[in-house]
Design brief:
Layout (H helix, E strand, L loop, with lengths): L5 E6 L3 H12 L4 E4 L3 E5 L5 H7 L6 E10 L5 H12 L5 E8 L5 H14 L4 E3 L9 H6 L6 E9 L2 E10 L2 H9 L12 H11 L2 H4 L7 E4 L6 H8 L4 E6 L2 H27 L12 E6 L8 H4 L4 H4 L2 E6 L13 H24 L6 E10 L2 E4 L2 H8 L2 E4 L15 E3 L6 E10 L2
Helix pairs in contact: 1-7, 3-4, 7-9, 13-14
Amino acid sequence: MNTKNLYAFTLGREWKISLAELMAIFGTESYQSHTETIAIFQIVGYSSEQLQRKFLTIGGSIRIIEVLWDSSAATFPTDVIEYIKISKPTGKIDFALGAYGVEFRLSDIGLRIKQTLKENGTSIRLVNQLNENINAASFKKEKLSKTGYEYNLIVIGSDGYIGRTLACQDIDAYTKRDTAKSRDMVTGMMPPKLVQMMINIAIAWEKISNKTNPVSIYDPFCGLWTTLIEAANMGISRVYGSDLSSDMVRSTESSLAEYIAEERVWQERILKVGGTPNKDFSDFQSSITQLDAREVSIAKSKLAIPNIVFENITIVSEWYLGEIMRPHEITLDKAKEERRKLERMYNDFFAGLTRAKFCKSIVMTFPFWNLNGTYSYFIEIYDILDKHWFEVVSLLPWEMKLNTTKWSLLYRRESQTVGREIIKIVPKK
């Protein structure tokens, strides 16, 4: 395979959603191949630096790796040595090794590479202490994207490559934004990574970057403000939210204002030291109001959304997932009871969207219940959507056979009794 413009992304725990996110951002035509741990895309028109910055807004991938050339388990050590020599680094080199799709004794191989380069006069330090990939936290701690290198062997089927890691997920940044929220088990706790994935699935990167006709995000159940903060963090300049709770509205307004203020200060610091700011809030607009989501038809006037903005507004949200139940408490009858409650709520919500003539995409989570390994789904939502003239869009190409039978994808931690079914919805044409 031609390795020009090839980039590999190591996928998160919910790898199917990670893959759907990447396809939404870069287009299905860019997709080349994947396993459950890594996916390769041929991305044309963007520099490595641009993709490095973009990676900060991708929630489902752990690493982005620039593919250098073909490689294999047999040639990987010499390929690493050759690339280091080509790079002609000065001073002491810190490097790490990674392997995907192949068993490889990384520390052992790394020490042999280190010894060979030392004999040639290169000062070098191996980061890998064990015969396994280093995690994102170690990558950041060792500053491998700035002052060091991580070289990876990638094997998918009969294809093998050597690649250099451009960036790793900033775990600390996610943790900071997540732990800033109050832990309210009733309103829920949407993980920032999941929200990023949902936003990217809802809208493409090019649309986010469109300054003449900017994309807008609306969360009608803004709750603990995760969606709006993540949208702003991704560069979306129009964010709107509403919630039935006045306390949630005030909390969201305060948290969003605090986030924007902190980011503006940070971007000014970057500029002062001669760097290039990676965020621009000069045209940022937001509006948050108290509103019952079932009355979403009046949201446009309540939020003072201009007509041209409303025509491009996208909904990304999570409503009530039902009663919190421990494993021993959950039964089929209780799951059915929760479904009946949700049915009434969502029927009114989508009826309101129809009255409002909503015309863009919706990405939402809906609950499913784990009954001793058997899942009970909120199947009523599909009849509700059809009734109000909406339809479901497949999150991954149907021929890949990775979606559920309803074209959705599932997000659930192993310990959770209630998981999230992620659905992309559009008005029928």
